[in-house]
Every structure is written in structure tokens, then in C-alpha cells.
């Protein structure tokens, strides 16, 4: 029953994205949406409506920070690549994820990979992320601070 | 208004192409697997995202479709970089000139 309720908004999103309201497209959309629901089988989750605005603000903040990080990251790596001397000081730095849930750890690993010259290559049971850095001389404090800020925002979004 | 959108589209197109080229140059110039992943996995994604922005602004592709494609790229790009980096680490591909290695220290202190 809950799945049937989800069918309607998903179909509306499909119709909006394809911007084609013919009957044939409607049938195709219905097939796609049914397929998605059969594959994913979402379970009913309690929505905390009161937290929704703050979660939305946190999400927007997170997206802006991520976009800024991505731009800085792109420029920094581009400068290293185009420099004739190739000034790489690579190394592996351990960063604790400080997250209880598996989803939180996965998301913070994802966020770290998107930030300047960092790439998570290994993890251990405690959730410590071993990160390959293009510039390993950068102070550890900066990395930890950025990680803490991201974790706070992610917790606001997903709690 | 139309000309402003066209200008944004042209700018995004030029910068996006530039970053894509930098990604390829980095792939050729950088010394080992891990650093090459930095170049392709991130600079490459950045370039493609900008090209998509240009397509959304300059052509009637539609904001919704563009946003869906961009978020899909932002999710899958780092995920593939993780997978390849982790696999390369597990089969023990060497690093060039590592200044610092916390992972090596961790595995030494355990054994």
C-alpha cells in the first residue's frame, strides 16, 4: 500500500523530467516507476516533519561547501599537473571518521574524496580512513576541522 | 537576459573543456596509479559537470535533467576512484616517493 502511495510522486517526477505528457510516455513512465519500486522496495520511515526545515538548510549548506571544495580541488590539482616540476609530496594520512553509523562513514569518505587532493583508499574496523593526499605536508588540524564540520552537517541532514 | 545566459554557457564550456584537458594531461604526466586517480577522478568530473552546466544554461535541456545527471556524476565519480584506489592498494602497487605513510605504521604496530 505504501509503495502504491510512492508511485504517484515518482511518476510525477518522471513526467516533469521528460516533459512529455502523451499516453505512451505515461505508460513507459509507469513501467519504469514500477520497476524501481520492485527493485528498491522502500520501507516506511518515520518522517520528523519539524526537523525538515533545519535538515533542508543543512543540506543546502553542505552542497555549497561541497561545490566550493570541488572548485578549489580542481584548481589545485590542475596547478600541480601543469607545473613543469610536478610538485607532488604524496603520502597516506589517517583520518578518523567519528561517525557511529555505516551510512555516515560512507558519506564522509565520499566527501573527503571530493575535497582538495585527497582520496580514501582503505578503511579499518574503527572507521579510520586512510587517505592518499597529493600534498601530505598540509597540517592535520585543518583536515580534522573540515571533517568535523562536514560530520555535523551530515548528522543534521540524516537524523 | 538571453545574452547573459549565453555568456555563462560559453564560459562554462571553455572552463569545462580546459579542465577535461588537464585531466588527460595529468593522467599522462603523473607518476603512479594513486596520483593519476586524483587527476581523472576529480578534475575529470569537474570538467564534465561544467560541460553539463553549459548544456543546461545554453540549450533547452531542462534544469531537472541536468541536476539529476550532475548529482549522479558526483556520486559515481568518487565511488569509482575509491574502488580502483583500494584495489590498487590491496594488490600492493607501489607509490612514488611517499613522504608519509600512516597505513604502513598502523599495519606494523598491529603485527
Structural class by sheet pairing and helices of chain B: mainly alpha
What spatial order of strands do you see in the largest sheet of chain A?
1-3-2
Mean pLDDT of chain B: 80
Q: What number is the mean pLDDT of chain A?
A: 77
Main sheet specs of chain A: 3 strands, antiparallel
Ends apart, CA distance between termini of chain B: 65 Å
Task: Categorize the overall geometry of chain B.
Answer: elongated
Structural class of chain A: mainly alpha
Rg from Cα of chain B? 19 Å
Note poorly predicted spans of chain B: none
Chains forming the largest contact? A-B, 36 and 43 residues
Number of helices of chain A: 5
Rounded radius of gyration of chain A (Å): 21 Å
Helix content class of chain A: 55-70%
Explain what you see:
- The complex is a heterodimer of chains A (159) and B (111).
- By secondary structure, chain A is mainly α.
- Chain A has two domains: 2-40, no CATH class; 49-158, no CATH class.
- Helix content of chain A is 62%, strand content 11%.
- Chain A contains five helices and three strands; from the N terminus they run αααβαββα.
- Chain A has helices at 2-18, 23-40, 52-82, 102-114, 140-158; strands at 91-96, 118-123, 128-133.
- The longest helix of chain A is centred in the middle third of the chain and has 31 residues, at 52-82.
- The radius of gyration of chain A is 21 Å and the shape is elongated.
- By secondary structure, chain B is an all-alpha fold.
- Chain B contains four helices and one strand.
- The longest helix of chain B is centred in the N-terminal third of the chain and has 28 residues, at 2-29.
- Chain B starts with a helix and ends with a helix.
- Classes of the chains: A mainly alpha (159), B mainly alpha (111).
- Chain A binds chain B through residues 16-17, 19, 66, 70-71, 73-74, 77-78, 81-82, 86, 88-94, 109-110, 113-114, 117, 119-122, 124, 128, 130, 132, 134, 136-137, and chain B through 19, 22, 25-26, 29-31, 34-35, 37-39, 41-43, 46-47, 49, 62, 64-65, 68, 74-75, 78-79, 81-82, 85-86, 88-89, 95-104, 106.
- Strand 1 of chain A pairs parallel with strand 1 (100-101) of chain B, so a sheet runs across the interface.
Amino acid at each position: 500500500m505504501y509503495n502504491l502511495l510512492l508511485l504517484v510522486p515518482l511518476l510525477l517526477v518522471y513526467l516533469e523530467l521528460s516533459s512529455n505528457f502523451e499516453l505512451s510516455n505515461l505508460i513507459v513512465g509507469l513501467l519504469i516507476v514500477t520497476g524501481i519500486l520492485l527493485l528498491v522496495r522502500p520501507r516506511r520511515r518515520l518522517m520528523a516533519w519539524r526537523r525538515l526545515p533545519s535538515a533542508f538548510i543543512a543540506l543546502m549548506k553542505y552542497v555549497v561547501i561541497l561545490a566550493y571544495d570541488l572548485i578549489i580541488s580542481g584548481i589545485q590539482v590542475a596547478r600541480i599537473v601543469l607545473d613543469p616540476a610536478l610538485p607532488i609530496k604524496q603520502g597516506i594520512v589517517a583520518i578518523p571518521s567519528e561517525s557511529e553509523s555505516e551510512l555516515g562513514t560512507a558519506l564522509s569518505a565520499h566527501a573527503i574524496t571530493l575535497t582538495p587532493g585527497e582520496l580514501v583508499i582503505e578503511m579499518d574496523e574503527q572507521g579510520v580512513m586512510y587517505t592518499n593526499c597529493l600534498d601530505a605536508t598540509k597540517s592535520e588540524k585543518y583536515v580534522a576541522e573540515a571533517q568535523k564540520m562536514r560530520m555535523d552537517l551530515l548528522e543534521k541532514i540524516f537524523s | 537576459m538571453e545574452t547573459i545566459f549565453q555568456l555563462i554557457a560559453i564560459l562554462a564550456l571553455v572552463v569545462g573543456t580546459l579542465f577535461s584537458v588537464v585531466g588527460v594531461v595529468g593522467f599522462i604526466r603523473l607518476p603512479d596509479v594513486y596520483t593519476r586517480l586524483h587527476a581523472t577522478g576529480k578534475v575529470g568530473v569537474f570538467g564534465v559537470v561544467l560541460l553539463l552546466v553549459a548544456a543546461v544554461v545554453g540549450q533547452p535541456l531542462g534544469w531537472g535533467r541536468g541536476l539529476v545527471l550532475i548529482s549522479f556524476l558526483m556520486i559515481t565519480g568518487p565511488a569509482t576512484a575509491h574502488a580502483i584506489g583500494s584495489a590498487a592498494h590491496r594488490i600492493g602497487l607501489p607509490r612514488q616517493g611517499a613522504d608519509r605513510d600512516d597505513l604502513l605504521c598502523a599495519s606494523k604496530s598491529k603485527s
